[in-house]
Design a protein that fits this description.
Elements: H1 3-17, E1 44-48, H2 55-59, H3 72-84, E2 88-98, E3 101-110, E4 114-122, E5 128-139, E6 144-154, H4 155-158, E7 162-172, E8 180-197, E9 200-219, E10 228-247, E11 255-271, E12 276-288, E13 298-310, E14 317-327, E15 337-339, E16 353-355, E17 357-368, E18 375-387, E19 398-408, E20 416-424, E21 429-435
Length: 440
Amino acid sequence: MSAGYTRFAALSLMLFASLSVSMGNAQAADAVPGEQWCDRPVDDIRFVGNKVTRAQVIERELMQKPGQYCSLDDIIDGMQNIMDLGLFKSIRAELDLAEGQLILSYLVVEKIFFLPLPRISRTSDGELRLGAQLRWDNFMGRLHQLKLTSEKRQEDDGRGRAGYVHSLEYNVPRFFGSRYGMSVDASVERRNAELSRDDEIYGETLRKSRRASLRLTRWANDSLGISGLSYFGGAGFEIRDYQMRSGVKGPFSDGENLALEAGFGIQRVHQEPYRRRGHYYGGSLAFADKVLGADFRYVRLEAEGRWYLALQKPQTNFNIRARLRWSDSAPFGERSYQIGGGELLRGMESGAHSGNILTLLNVEYLSGFFAYPAWRWLVFMDAGNVYLQSDVDLFRQHVRGGVGLRRKVEALTNADLRLDLAWDPVEGKVKPYLSTSLTF
């Protein structure tokens, strides 16, 4: 191990550790106070502490229903389902006998859902972003997710190509009293870019893009919660224009793309205070054709599995993600998939390779610090590759590895600090990745 690597790793760890450390106490209790009264039907269920979250969001996750005979297993399963929403720092359940009535109360402590803030951030691949973002993870208390972003983005830590992106994301996991959900995305992009493929540079361009997509989801399970099997269908539309600054477009082209998609997901991921357990499986089919009004024609098949394997030690687990993606072509003269970067294959330059078939495997072993459970260290391995149609060799994979740290931000929804250090054997150096979201 080189002296440069040792100094860099030490400085990175010191910087990460300089953040304030607070010990978490959000845990779902194993015992229910008043459980001695659980020998009769539950007459009423009440919620305490949900200042923003509507009662219906919590109620539809419960296994124990009013009028049903009291079951401690159902009460505790309901607590886990509520924790899986990601909205609360802590959850407790209590049973109380008042005037002959058995009352079940769920006491919750909410996280911070609404974040209107100036945005100064750096992606794990070194892109600086400056602007503003409004993020509301529990919009109107209904578990809807709203995100509005307007920002300038510049590559290479602020020294490379720049552009502007404005976007809207709105997601409804499930409407109250319904089997259906919905998501809407729209964005406008204006960015300077290099047109290149297979180490050949064609030119510099100003890329203008307008996108919109709509997806409708139907839950297959009879319960009203947001776990289990769901399937979806939708459509996406994009208009793209290249204004050349220098050189030529090469294989790239302007145009309009309209694609239809359908797929399914099986969500069985459970949240613990500092780790996850369970699994997710999903797959989708998308296609575009000129009969739909698109300028391009292609078919895509994609499958993904994620496993969160909780080990015996607290805060210790294996996380595994596997992806397989295939496409016969792609719009705008591009290739469907790229590999490399902090979100896919750490230790390789972002977009280092492109193709129409992708294989990917990410494995992480995480373990916590006993005195500071919000912190966890990890070792990881990433393996993957992209292929054209005629050169598929599943034994030919790019493999990288490294170490990292995770810090759970308990007060916020969907917020984890992430530092990864990956070795790049091509450049012979360590690549750092710092982000505010987990890898997967």
